[in-house]
Design goal:
The chain is of the alpha/beta class. The protein is 45% helix and 19% strand. It is globular, with a radius of gyration of 18 Å. The two termini are 31 Å apart. The structure holds S-adenosylmethionine (SAM).
């Protein structure tokens, strides 16, 4: 990815003082004494449309075990990493491109008391700063849409896993009916959105050397949630606690465009579990 695209992607996600805003929103909703836990933060720090529900589905596919070393590729502000570390008792390294997301992830991990189990690293998915075989499992949630060089994305995930280690991901892909409606949660326009179709994705995974354990086009399964979210946003506006704290009120238009695009066959939702051969 060129530096211009990379800095446009960071600008899309970054803003000052995210952790303070999130903690203030949490306390305004539930009172000053609310314990800051991964579950309490979940409406605010799972940085993708279907929130904790999507992370739970991905975690069920990943099936992490206590004590394992996990890598979250494009971990955002660390919501999924904290929730998985706390729920399954593993150590999760969350790597992200955007410095402000990483700073937020560090602050929220400290606020939840999880800094000894969740490690935040600033870096780029296509050039991971880790040695071969360092992780038992890896996952990536709604990140690949920002990555142009997908062969390198899969090759790097494969390299850092131990033999037999698994990589689970879920993300939006290209649909059969043309370009999606912009702006979207991951990109204001087509210059920073790189969508592969389910067929292209499957081919890229196999070319990288992964074994395919599960590969699903989840569009039909997820559409009812996207439609319901659109109906609520158009009828009632944003919920009291939501991703607007992170992204501003523009998140409503982004999420409506996701639903419209998926309904019109301009986006697909892809979920997969891959294994590094032994
Ligand atoms: C939609 S957010 C998802 C964050 C997180 N996975 C979650 O679900 O809460 C996408 C994240 O990917 C990061 N990202 C985009 N391109 C990246 C790249 N090439 N390498 C690492 N992170 C990247 C962005 O900075 C952003 O935090």
């Amino acid at each position: 990815m060129g530096e211009a695209a990379s800095s446009k992607i960071q600008d899309h996600y970054a803003s000052e003082g995210i952790a303070a805003r999130i903690l203030a929103a949490l306390r305004a909703a539930w009172g000053e004494d609310i314990p800051v836990t991964p579950d309490a933060l979940a409406p605010l720090d799972h940085f993708h449309g279907r929130g904790l529900k999507a992370t739970e589905e991905l975690a069920a596919l990943l099936d992490p075990r206590a004590g394992e070393r996990l890598l979250d590729i494009g971990g955002g502000i660390g919501g999924p990493a904290r929730w998985i570390a706390a729920s399954f008792g593993c150590r999760v390294t969350s790597l992200d491109l955007t410095p402000e997301c990483c700073r937020t992830a560090v602050e929220l991990s400290a606020a939840t008391g999880l800094s000894d189990r969740v490690f935040i690293i600033e870096g780029i998915a296509t050039d991971l700063p880790f040695g071969e075989g360092e992780f038992d499992r890896a996952y990536s949630e709604n990140v690949a849409m920002n990555i142009a060089d997908k062969p390198r994305f899969y090759a790097e995930a494969l390299r850092v896993l131990r033999p037999g280690g698994v990589f689970a991901f879920s993300n939006y892909g290209a649909g059969p009916n043309g370009d999606p409606h912009f702006p979207l949660p991951w990109a204001a326009g087509p210059l920073t959105s790189f969508l592969a179709s389910p067929d292209e994705t499957r081919e890229e995974i196999l070319d990288a050397g992964f074994e395919l354990v599960v590969f699903r086009d989840k569009t039909e399964e997820v559409l009812p949630d996207l439609r319901e979210n659109r109906r609520r946003l158009e009828g009632q506006g944003l919920p009291p606690l939501g991703l607007q704290t992170l992204m501003g009120e523009r998140i409503a238009e982004f999420q409506i465009n996701v639903a419209r695009s998926a309904e019109e066959g301009r986006l697909t939702i892809i979920e997969a579990l891959l294994r590094k051969p032994t």
